[in-house]
Amino acid sequence: MNVLIVYAHPEPRSLNGSLKNFTVDRLTQRGHDVRVSDLYAMRWKPAADGDDFLERDRSRRLDLIADSQQAYTTGTQAPDIAAQQADLRWADAVLFQFPLWWFSMPAILKGWVERVYAYGFAYGVGEHSETHWGDRYGEGVFQGKRAMLIVTAGGWESHYAERGINGPIGDLLFPITHGILHYPGFDVLPPFVLYKVERMDEARFARVQQELGRRLDDLWTDAPIAYRKQNGGDYDIPALTLKPGLEEASLGDGAARASGLRLHVRR
Ligand code: FAD
Question: Where is the Flavodoxin-like fold domain (predicted)?
Answer without folding.
Answer: 1-213
